[in-house]
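User: Let's play a game. I give you a shape written as tokens, and you guess the letters that built it. Ready? Here's round one.
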């Protein structure tokens, strides 16, 4: 199968869908890899390394010519989409719920698209789960960014001149990103608390040495889908949880929010009034900024200051770790590749496999995913 790797054209996107290591694996499996020149430059991966690994480099037109599959981080822009070979398989983070018109455009162009966001949460698909691999890095980077914005130290320090108190960090949402944020804040020496609406998160939070904060009523016990995602809670529960959080957040130095509900705007967990009760110098890092933010004052790709509190809305935290983010994402794609070919290595997506069924966004000129039909 001929696989094309594109240079990302979205503003601020530093990742790339292949690394020299994954190119070696794909070439070793019999695939032909064509990479657009300069695709890995922003991830510190020069063209020479790709050539040494067995890839061919060229212009966009040369890269796409005859491609059976196109691997990318984000969906190609409109101009690039028009150049994709009809019938090819596009695999990328397509933001399907955020841009439903794109699914129709891909179907109209005759592109069979697989959305990496739709990778099923099953054991067999874990090695292909790009949301988890990227969220893990996002949770880590969120705390690193917070440490840069916060004008004090994280760990307690005892000196001859006096003692520096440890920072208090609060993580809202204990999924993959949240758990990594907890672990990172703990490693930096902060006193960490965390909350989540999923009962299973309580034990995970405790295992990392953090204290769990939540309203643990009957609704809380049923607040998780079969796929492991958080359900949207009732207004009554949200009010009780908001009161608990408001009282707790007023004492915190750093807050990291990670709450997302697939296909819906991010839930508003921190109001303007809550921010105004926080200490001057406190920091909020909102990982849900691309979906509208968990804080009502969040602005995507900006650091907003309100009443002495900094609210950071980074849209692409994994992109701030371009080399590692690219490496993990590229491995996700390598692990998916066997499901796109037959025993002879020719393009033949396993359309009846539950993983491909779950990821399929468009096929044969139609939008096929159940949530977007």
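Assistant: Ready! My guess for every position:
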């Amino acid at each position: 199968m001929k696989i094309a790797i594109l240079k990302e054209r979205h503003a601020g996107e530093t990742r790339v869908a292949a690394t020299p290591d994954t190119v070696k694996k794909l070439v070793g499996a019999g695939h032909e890899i064509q990479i657009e020149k300069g695709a890995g430059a922003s991830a510190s991966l020069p063209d020479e390394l790709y050539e040494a690994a067995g890839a061919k480099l060229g212009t966009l037109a040369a890269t796409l010519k005859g491609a059976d599959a196109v691997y990318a981080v984000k969906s190609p822009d409109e101009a690039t989409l028009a150049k994709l070979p009809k019938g090819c398989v596009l695999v990328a983070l397509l933001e399907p719920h955020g841009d439903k018109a794109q699914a129709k455009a891909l179907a109209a162009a005759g592109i069979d698209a697989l959305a990496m966001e739709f990778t099923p949460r099953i054991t067999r698909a874990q090695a292909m789960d790009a949301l988890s691999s990227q969220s893990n890095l996002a949770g880590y980077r969120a705390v690193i960014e917070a440490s840069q914005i916060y004008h004090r130290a994280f760990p307690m320090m005892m000196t001859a001149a006096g003692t520096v108190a440890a920072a208090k960090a609060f993580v809202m949402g204990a999924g993959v990103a949240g758990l990594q944020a907890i672990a990172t804040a703990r490693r930096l020496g902060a006193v960490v608390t965390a909350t989540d609406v999923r009962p299973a998160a309580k034990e995970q939070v405790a295992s990392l040495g953090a204290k769990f904060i939540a309203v643990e009523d009957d609704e809380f016990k049923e607040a998780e889908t079969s796929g492991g995602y958080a359900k949207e809670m009732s207004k009554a529960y949200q009010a009780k949880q908001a009161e608990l959080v408001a009282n707790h957040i007023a004492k915190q130095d750093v807050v990291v929010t990670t709450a997302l509900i697939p296909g819906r705007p991010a839930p508003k967990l921190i109001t303007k009034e809550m921010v105004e009760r926080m200490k001057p110098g406190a920091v909020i890092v909102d990982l849900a900024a691309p979906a509208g933010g968990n804080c009502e004052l969040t602005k995507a790709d900006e650091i907003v200051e309100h009443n002495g509190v900094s609210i950071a809305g980074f849209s692409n935290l994994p992109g701030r770790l371009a080399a590692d983010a690219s490496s993990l994402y590229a491995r996700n794609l390598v692990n998916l590749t066997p499901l796109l070919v037959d025993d002879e290595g020719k393009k033949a997506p396993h359309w009846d496999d539950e993983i491909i069924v779950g990821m399929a966004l468009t096929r044969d000129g139609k939008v096929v995913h159940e949530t977007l039909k």
